[in-house]
Amino acid sequence: VRACVRVDIIDFLLLCPGIAEIKEIAKDRDRIFVVGISCGLSASYVCGQLDWALSQENAVPIGIGFNPANLSRYEYIDVWNKSCRQIYCEMDKRSRAEREAGEERRAYMVNPTVGAEAIAGSTRMKGGSVTKMILEMCFLSGMELALRATDMYNPGPNEICMAGDAKDDDYNRVTSLDPILTHITLYRMTYQAVYKKKAMESIAEVMTLAASSIENPNGHFYYIGSDAFGILGLIDASEMVDTYGAPHDEMRGFVEGGWSICKNNDGDLSERSKALRMSLEHFEEDILPTLTKEDTVIMLSNEEVSEGLRATWRKVNLTEAKIARVVVSSSRTTPTLAELDLGESAPIAFVAIPWACTSCFRFTFEEFAMKMVVNLLSTGVNVIRGRTLSHFMVNMSVSNYKLYMRAAHIVKSIAVVEDDIALNALNRSIYRDDMPGLETAKIRPIAEHVEAAKGVEMVVPLAIILAFHEFRGIEQYHMDRALKKLRCVSDLRQIVRRIQDIRY
């Protein structure tokens, strides 16, 4: 990370949709940095752009992920003669050699090991959080180093204190002139604050409330918030469809200002689909009139609540819906809704975060804490709902090459079968075909299987059942029999347990 902080050579930052755009930028500049983020080092789209950067004299590829390079995805990719593992190992080899020789760096691998994810294959929790840490440490440290060269820099005592319910003599104070070490310390203390017993108990109460809505066929779960907190809720809710196979309208997020606060290149997209209406005004128009006692609305904020969000919250209070709040704050006491003039009492998930007494970056750590809390809430809700088996997300969407291979690995791991049996079962489940033929499926490109999987429900759960039976030699296990057994994802746990009893 420290080697990446070179503010003197950064011209501007662009989130590039593809190699064509990168080429256009590169031709006018002496040097560009191409940052490719793939938590499991398995995204071929990212890997392809890093591979291009490796071959360019004026490009410096930076790979960010959380696997050793030699454990990245090894399968060759359709219409490409390389694998992700080849590219990342080449980057890792070059990066190590340049560092040891003291040469100018032409490639970087930033891939710390952070341990297994709570839900296998879902990198939005550990992987996503550490990605955010790395990027923010680079940019915040770069900003601080740039400010040090100006008259604007006046840091004062660089003191880090731990807020919360600790006594005065329990405060942790750290002094450091190194901005990276300071930020690492703050991130660690923020993480510890979220996972303190008192904070976790309050988060569990809100999680239980939200789960009671999702367990009901007619229930819904909504986040509302402003600024970055609202965007975090929006992003968290958007991940439920692909990760857990949840209906797109079951869990949604709304942010004050809608698309304008997101600053996306395409502007306001709300006219394209009702699902893209995401401002508080849209919430009041589309959702508020439909709220029932089966729904849960959660407001995300610190102790400061904007007038627009406050007005929407008061209207929610007048409905039958269940309500709760998530508050991240450097305050030492948990605020009540009444104290904040926000209506009657309701569960509050409260996290007392660390605060830097003179830091202008305090909101960064509030945002980091909020990300961890909403990830915990949505993950817990879907586990309670029965959309996981052990630590696997078994109701995921098979919407691209990476997720196809992940689905095959999940089938293989749960059914304890060979690769061929797992892939055959997965393809049978996608096509809803009793026996499409293993050899035929092998020669068809994975892109075709991914296209065929669009809109098909319960692909992985059905594939697991088919793989179990194929292992037992029941190759003609009919699709309709399997589908009758598997009425919903939560049935899978009982089915797998019964099959395992027979098998072992």
Biggest sheet record: 5 strands, parallel
Beta-strand fraction estimate: 5-15%
Number of helices: 19
Gyration radius, rounded: 25 Å
Low-pLDDT runs: 1-12, 156-176
H/E element order: HEHEHEHEEHHEHHEHHEHEEEHHHHHHHH
* Dominant shape: globular
Termini separation comes to 49 Å
Structural class estimated from helices and strands: alpha/beta
Counted beta strands: 11
Strand order of the largest sheet: 7-6-8-9-10
Percent of residues in helices comes to: 40-55%
Overall pLDDT? 81
Q: How would you describe this structure to a colleague?
A:
The protein has 504 residues and is of the alpha/beta class. 46% of the residues lie in helices and 11% in strands. The protein has 19 helices and eleven strands. A five-stranded parallel sheet has the order 7-6-8-9-10, with helices on both faces. Residues 1-12 and 156-176 have low confidence and may be disordered.
